[in-house]
Amino acid sequence: MVLSAAGQHLLRVSRPGAWGQHLLRVSRPGAWGQHLLRGIGSVSTTAKGFQEKEIREKLQAFPGGSIDLVKQESGIAVLTVNNPARMNAFSGSMMVELEERVSQLEEWTEGKGLIVQGAAGTFCSGSDLNAVRAISNPQDGMKMCMFMQNVLTRLLRLPLLSVALVEGSALGGGAELTTACDFRLMVPGGMIRFVHKHMGLVPGWGGAARLVRIVGSQNALKMLGGALKVDPEMGLQIGLADGVLEGSLDGSGANALLEAEQWLGCYTTGPASVIRAIKNVVVSGRELPLEVALRTERDVFGTVWGGPANLQALASKAKHK
Ligand SMILES: CCCC(=O)SCCNC(=O)CCNC(=O)[C@H](O)C(C)(C)COP(=O)(O)OP(=O)(O)OC[C@H]1O[C@@H](n2cnc3c(N)ncnc32)[C@H](O)[C@@H]1OP(=O)(O)O
């Protein structure tokens, strides 16, 4: 780690062979705090110096599937990774669409919750291997990685309580996507598997960093090193899964979605302003140094203190037995 004159950390990523050393410039942690303080819930990229327009154009050259978003009256939105012919693998255009959907969710001020699911009874089999083969050179791979890291970081920081509904398999980048949600609910027969090792890779969409925070470094090492198949039972045991649902009665996925909505509803009941504030204080507590997190918490507190929900609760003389 080198601290440049501009105060930016340069993370030196080396790889032996043709392309030698690359410098991935990331903004210093203090700048994250500034982002969070300025506009919690609309945090933008932590990566500098990558040409988003250029990578979008590149990714658009690999079309297929879609990322569908339905915002419901209940304040819970459903995001569906939809490419069933390829087990919901992410084509390039789906990566771009995911960024657009995240932008829409950042603008959705009435939202409280989000369920991320795969179409047709399976979650997501990671990157579309056809696109991966076409961009297997290091420069393009690095750009795709930065693009997806940025999108999934923004997804996790949305001021919505988010759940990955894991039916079927979540493989590779699909496993990484589950870690970009606050919670994971698994359906019997479901599996989360970081298969990267078998692809000669490590996670690159931020999945390893998030996994360590969810299950701890020991379990993360075992999951990545062994490319372990994490079923619902193991998921609960290591804290990767937050619940196991009954699942589809007819194979349509409808029942699992309904169950996930009910599960999430326990945490999203109440005014959007309060639910969003809860998510924001937790994000800052999770990601920021304590002093900055405390300042952020104070700022968020100021947005709800004396607000309609607070005044109504005071007037009702509520008892919390
Ligand atoms: C930083 C990101 C790292 C990554 O995500 S790398 C990608 C990691 N993912 C993989 O390697 C998944 C490879 N696929 C598999 O293991 C199996 O296809 C899988 C998902 C277990 C399903 O197995 P089966 O149920 O036997 O079905 P199948 O193999 O016949 O697949 C059905 C069709 O889906 C396709 N498919 C599945 N995963 C894909 C992918 N990631 N990219 C592109 N195409 C994919 C598969 O080729 C097959 O297509 P087709 O019917 O032969 O035309």
UniProtKB/TrEMBL annotation:
<keyword id="KW-0456">Lyase</keyword>
<protein>
    <recommendedName>
        <fullName>Ethylmalonyl-CoA decarboxylase</fullName>
        <ecNumber>4.1.1.94</ecNumber>
    </recommendedName>
</protein>
<keyword id="KW-0963">Cytoplasm</keyword>
<dbReference type="InterPro" id="IPR001753">
    <property type="entry name" value="Enoyl-CoA_hydra/iso"/>
</dbReference>
<dbReference type="InterPro" id="IPR018376">
    <property type="entry name" value="Enoyl-CoA_hyd/isom_CS"/>
</dbReference>
<comment type="function">
    <text>Decarboxylates ethylmalonyl-CoA, a potentially toxic metabolite, to form butyryl-CoA, suggesting it might be involved in metabolite proofreading. Acts preferentially on (S)-ethylmalonyl-CoA but also has some activity on the (R)-isomer. Also has methylmalonyl-CoA decarboxylase activity at lower level.</text>
</comment>
<dbReference type="Pfam" id="PF00378">
    <property type="entry name" value="ECH_1"/>
</dbReference>
<dbReference type="InterPro" id="IPR029045">
    <property type="entry name" value="ClpP/crotonase-like_dom_sf"/>
</dbReference>
<comment type="similarity">
    <text>Belongs to the enoyl-CoA hydratase/isomerase family.</text>
</comment>
